[in-house]
Amino acid sequence: MNVHLLFAHPWTWITGVLLVALVHGVAPQLLLRLALACYPRRDPRRRELRADYAAVPVKERPRWVLDVLTAGLLDGLHLRVRDVRRRRKADSNLQKLIDFNLLDKPTQRAFFGMLLLLGVEGMVFGFVTPNLWTDAASMITCMLMAGLLYRLRLLTRRADERADARRTDPAHHDE
Amino acid sequence: MRRTETALRVADEFLSRPGDKHWGYETSKATGIRSGSLYPILTRFLDAEWITDGWEDPAATGGRPPRRYYELTDRGRAEMGGFVAGARIQASAIRSRLRPLGGTA
User: Fold this and answer.
1) Which of B40, B43, B67 comes nearest A52 by C-beta?
2) How far is residue B23's CA from residue B55's CA, in Å, rounded to a whole number?
3) CB count, 10 Å around CB of A60?
């Protein structure tokens, strides 16, 4: 074989080298990542496949990874989809809990700010400042506003729930 | 548990070395089953509680990622034995019913 010919047409061997590097180096890694992404985040199979991949001889890796990817698509993907759905549902439940069982942040901040101010003024002036009553009134207003906001959200949620029930079950009637 | 050829081979591998720890790639090599079929079978065995899994101690792996091991459980030893034996009986029954073509053995 004439070696000079190889260098006279560099594209031939460069392409070959790149192809080998792709098939045995980069491509299996990418496909493995894809296969791992098919499984849920905390699935032990992810760690297992990564560890097993390290033990597979380089020559066997492309085929091994293709097999694993097939299994991932057939067996892991539906688990991943289920996991994502479950997490989204849990997130929305948490959001509902925050929305309807706690006061929102600005109201909380305003309420505690007024309370602090009242406390500091009380300590400094011995509760004799003419502002004291204004502060107390503000605090009460703040409490009332927070309560009203909470009540309004509760009513909105109930209305939403009733509308949902009507949509899913046409025979549903309000009591 | 469905009695497939691949599941039987994996079960046979576990039963041939019941006290040992098995890991994915090694089992795949020993049984000649491709990784795409092996891992779902291992999941089925885990779900049936025939095997249990564990992880290698990271300190003892010498820098490589710790592997996931599978071990046969007591339940697995009993039920897997029946699973393999049942398949063997079934296979021999089928074989005995088959008659060679042309009347010669």
Assistant:
1) B67
2) 10
3) 14
Predicted interface score ipTM higher than 0.85: no
CA dihedral (A119, A122, A127, A131) positive or negative:
negative
A111, A103 contact by CB (below 8 A): yes
CB atoms within 10 A of CB A43: 17
H/E segment holding residue A149: helix A131-168
For CA atoms A88, A89, A95, A99, give the dihedral sign: positive
- Distance, CA of A76 to CA of A22 (rounded, Å): 26
Residue A17 tokens read as 């080298």
Residue A78 touches partner B, C-beta closer than 8 Å: no
**Distance between CA A61 and CA A50 in Å, rounded?**
12
Cα A119 to Cα B63: distance, rounded to the nearest angstrom: 60
Give the whole-angstrom CA distance, residue A70 versus residue B34: 11
Q: Which residue has the tokens 């025979």?
A: A171
* DSSP strand pairing (B51-55 vs B22-23): unpaired
Residue B51, φ and ψ in degrees, nearest 5: -130, 160
Interface of B with A (CB under 8 A): 23-25, 34-37, 39-40, 43, 53, 55, 64-68
Contact B45, B10 (CB under 8 A): yes
Measure the CA–CA gap between A68 and A121, rounded to whole angstroms: 69
Higher per-residue confidence, A16 vs A82: A82
pLDDT band at B97 (very low <50, low <70, confident <90, very high): confident
Query: Over 90: is that where the pLDDT of B57 sits?
Result: no
Asked if B34's CB is within 8 angstroms of A55's CB, the reply is no
Please, are residues A108 and A149 in contact by the beta-carbon 8 Å criterion? Answer: no
